Amino acid sequence: MTTVVTQDWIEEVLEEHKRLRVMCADLRQVLAGARPEAGEKGAHTWASDLSMRLVKLHDELFRHFRFEESMGLVEDVVERHPRALSRLEAVIGQHPIMLRDLRSIMTDALTYSEGELPEDPKLRQRTLSLLDTLHHHEQEETDLFQRLEYRDQGAGD
Asked: Angle at Cα 19 formed by Cα 70 and Cα 10, nearest 5°?
């Protein structure tokens, strides 16, 4: 089998993680600003700006997750690092959950932009919570890939 978890692959994933961290930091900055009440002047602009950023984040996350999942990573790990399989499956299993949660927040942001309160009006809190989840996920994933590469390089020493 062709090795998937190469140094180049890991570096590409880590670069994507950096780009995603910048997007998340940008979202946090937007969320730190004042939010007009639904229906008040500026609420549409605030919510539309948030929605646009959420859509971009969703697009980048979707592409990033598909890149990780489509490269034969699980098969490669089973072959080279079988003890890491359950941890990898748990990390990859978070992908559809995070995307689903992000789509739910996007829907509520669009509802808010129309001057209506979404079913769950805690839009800022939910978005920040998702950003925290993404941060922890990225740390866990980065740690996993670095450990796999370290073990792989150390095996020949």
From this structure: 45
CA 80 to chain centre: 26
With CA atoms as reference, report the closest residue to 60 among 13, 5, 105, 127: 13
Instruction: Provide the token pair at 138.
Output: 């990225």
- Does a structural domain hold residue 1? no
Question: pLDDT of 69-109, one tens digit each?
Answer: 887 777 777 787 888 888 888 999 999 999 999 999 999 88
C-alpha count within 13 angstroms, C-beta hemisphere, residue 119 = 4
Inside any domain, residue 36:
yes
Tally of domains within the chain:
1
Q: Which two tokens stand for residue 42?
A: 């500026």
> Tokens at residue 41, please?
């002047």
This prediction's pTM: 0.83
**CB-side exposure of 45: number of CA atoms within 13 Å?**
6
CA gap 55, 57 in Å, rounded: 5
